[in-house]
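Table S5 (text form). Sequence records supplied for joint modeling of the two-component complex.
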Amino acid sequence: MKIVRMMAALALCMALLFALGCASEPEKKAEDKAPAKTEAPAPAPEAKQDAKPLTMGLILVGPYNDKGYSQAQYEGGKYLEEKMGAKLIYLDKVNPADRPGLTIPQVVDDLLAKGADFIVAGSDDMTDGIIEAAGQHPDTVFVHASGDAALTGKGPKNLGNVFGRMTFPKMMAGFSAGMTTQTGKIGVVGPLINAETRRLIVSAYLGARYAWTQVRGKDLKDLSFNVKWIGFWFNIPGVTADPTQMAGSLYDGGCDVVLSGIDTPEVVTVAQQRRDAGKTVWALPYDYEKACEGQGSVCVGVPYFNWGPMFLKIAEQVKAGTYKAVFDWEAPYWADINDHDKSPVGFMPGEGLSADNKKALDEFVAKLGSGELNLFTGPLNYQDGSVFLKAGETATDKQIWYLEQLLQGMEGLSSPK
Amino acid sequence: MNRESLLRQIGWFAAAVGLALFLTVLVTLPSGAPPLTTIFVLFQGGLGSLSKFGQALSVWVPLTLCSVGLLIPFTARLWNIGVEGQVIMGAIFCTAALRPFDGGGAGQIILALAAAALGGALWALLSGLLRVFGRVHEIFSGLGLNFVALGVILWLIFGPWKRPGIASMSGTEPLDVSLWLAKVGSLSVTWAGLGLALAAIVLAAVLLHRTGWGLKLRAVGENPKAATLFALGPRRRLLQAFLLCGAMAGLAGATQVLAVYHRLLPSISSSYGYTGLLVGMMASYRLGLAPFICLFFAVLNVGSIQLPLQLGLDSSLSGVIQGVMVLSVFIVQGVRLWLAKRGEAA
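The corresponding structure-token record, covering 763 residues in total, follows.
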């Protein structure tokens, strides 16, 4: 009896579910005739390569409009549409907190089903998932923006890496902070601790140190550089530390300039509130070119990613069938680091950077670009006092990429304790 | 509420779905989305192909384990809201059991599953002990323990179980492929997961409806004082109910680790514990309905990513639609109660 009822219930529920799906199907077809054409399911991408535009499947870790890391990638995808008539399909907020139960291989399956010709995964958080997915689709090009699977050989042969050399814009950010600070106390709201974040924050420190000691001629002892980590790329309430509170406590602790290392722009908001309360403070957001717009003089400038040119290069190679899955760490276009068509990374000064400081920054950028100045030059010690670079020694790319610790003179955790 | 026939319940459920669809149309219209297409895409995204259905089933497994487990303490009128924490504890115990091994096979996986069941059960037992001996209502202790479990998992991931040189909420080092549960063909769902969920349903059905234990548990729930007088051992029975539910929740956590994420991460539970409570309420705590409502939720969950992908809708809309669906069920239930009361009065 019970079984019969269970079976009846099963049948009814299934009928209900399928009926819901099927009932609206004809109407969908009727309504959607025009959009259906642009959607072009295209079962065999290679066969129809010419008929259908090249399609990039982009996986974003945060919201596409986060005014930070994910938006920068989203606009990179839009740039691709504009420049080569390619098509962008994307899914945003791909992280276990926002989309419970969703895994990267599933997203990839969906993007491929929608006609993606190659897949770009946007975040460090997707490292394991994208290696797994690339292994499942050996004939598709996968690119992991950040990550080093192609360098270490851990990933499958169809998975490449691309990243801009954000170390340089971070040096410029640090430099601007070092020029701007009045108290000599600079704070950083950092994301999680790994080689990438250590590398970027150390770059900022080196920039700030150069400005403080070489340009302003002050004593290194009077410069404090304090890093506070929240635990992830952006705030997950209840899981990470709250970046708003972190920024607030840095300002309360006497920092007058705070740099953001996270994907989202909370730091600028906090600085704005402090300004409104009459405090002389500044902030530097991260990731997104327009992050300083509308923020007024609180915003000193923003080191940002300009994914467009990098995506374009990959897309053209994919289209021509010449893409090689390599580890690609792209330098800024030094003639104009803010050239939208050429520079993969840049630094956009904000209203908070004074005219004099801007002039100093331009000289600093010119020196970096010409190679006259290499901030990763010894003597530099790690935070625990051990030697990172001997006097006169310069760091290799690998040493910078896999930076093991913060440097001596920086406060904050180098690695988890 | 047990007096009503199953068919009538399904009728009410259909009414709820109807209302949900209507409200969804209202919600989607201002956003410029074609409502029927939206709903179609949502369901097709969860049922449209075998692989989608496999994805939905892989959500269904932990959700069913949670909601079926919840029915056992509910038979004794206990709201084990701590189920969320029990899922997390299961995942933690599962990961802990596998940490000594670089790889392995069936033996290690069985060990991990057993550890997960134990972890969930122990965490549930805490709620049970507080309820039975400390007279702390299980809703308060459960909620509290959920936060503690979250604290423990965050501490482990950020501390002792961190990846070398990394402090990130991204999670622990992934498990070796040999420790992943075997998939059903190329589908996302695993044989072991399906087996566990079905076994849980059968176990709960037999226990609650075919044994004296279940009958006595119900008696304990209906009238604890009488239960004591008739020597039904209410304390022991309540604790057993908590243990069983916790074990099932723990297994749900294990499937999340072994079959879905292959590592431990802060949101390992995917909030299936709380969703399981919703399922239980929607099903009016009837075992016959719970697995199907779980399937309904699973289909919605999997289908929701199609909204941004296919229709370019802001992805938060899928959350709104899911919320609307749950809300309509409660509205319909409210109407049903009101009608029933009016019927009695008249």
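Note: Chain A touches chain B through 57 residues (CB under 8 Å).
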